[in-house]
Amino acid sequence: MNKDIETRYLSGPVELRAGDKGKKLGGYALKYNRLSQNMGGFVEQVAPGALNKTLADGGDVLCRYQHEDEFLLGRTSSGTLRLMPDDVGLPYEVDLPNTSYANDVAALAERGDVSHSSFSFYTIEDEWGFTEQGFPLRTLLQIQLVDVAPVVQPAYLDTSTGLRHLAASRNLDFDSVRAAAVSGSLAALLEQRDEPQPEPETPSEPHVPVELLRLQGDWLSRRNL
Predict the structure, then answer these.
(1) Rg of the Cα trace of the chain?
(2) In the chain, what's the furthest Cα-to-Cα distance?
(3) Where are the domains of the chain?
(4) How far is CA 38 from CA 41, 59, 184, 214, in A?
């Protein structure tokens, strides 16, 4: 498993809802097969089934406003956060606590000021390929979810972890991979690595002139007389 936490953002509605025990906040944390924006030389998507390990393990997933510990909103282990995966992606719903910061989040969401959701994760398995247009594509096949988060706006996407994972999986120098991504030549690097290597040529039998073979035969015949 990749030990570096990665964070991704999804632009979409974060809805404030009324519940029996107070206010709830929810939306999609991620959507499957949805191409990201250009992440600095490549795009990315989450494959259906990428959350199977997280859901099967039943590990504790947090909901934190802006991914900050001091703004904890709920967690799956206490039942205050619910993950509801469907064919589209991962919707979540959190019961907001009666705290000053949670009330502030509710007010911001009600006004539409909180319009993005986010999720952070560890990469367990990914693969690299190309979009239909030939642009480098990273597909997250299996991830370990850490948290989901309503956020005000997307922060800068740090893509170095994904590129480091690519370099390690293909035994490449990380600085070379990063330079290729920055220069827009990552596709050429991937194509070069994907090309089948030619089979080594089998040495051919040395050519012996016919006349030499005849002379050798005559010599052996004279020795046997």
Answers:
(1) 29
(2) 114
(3) 6-156
(4) 6, 31, 11, 72
Cα separation of 80 and 26, whole Å? Answer: 12
Residue 209 confidence (pLDDT) above 60: no
Render pLDDT for 2-37 as a digit per residue (tens, 0 to 9). 578 999 988 778 899 887 778 999 999 999 999 988
The whole-angstrom separation of Cα 39 and Cα 15 is 27
**Is residue 161 pLDDT above 80, yes or no?**
no
The 3-class secondary structure across the chain, one letter per residue, is CCCCCEEEEEECCCEEEEECCEEEEEEEEEECCCCCCCCCCCEEEECCCCCHHHHHHCCCCEEEHHHCHHHEEEEHHHCCEEECCCCCEEEEEEECCCCHHHHHHHHHHHHCCCCEEEEEEEEEEEEEEECCCCCEEEEEEEEEEEEEEEECCCCCCCCHHHHHHHHHHCCCCHHHHHHHHHHCCHHHHHHHHHCCCCCCCCCCCCCCCHHHHHHHHHHHHHHCC
Q: What gap in Å lies between CA 186 and CA 50, rounded to an integer?
A: 24
C-alpha span between 58 and 76 (Å, rounded): 9
Alpha-carbon distance 49 to 199, whole Å?
37
Q: Helices 186-194 and 174-183 meet at what angle, rounded to 10?
A: 130
Q: How far is 78 from 21, CA to CA, in rounded Å?
A: 15
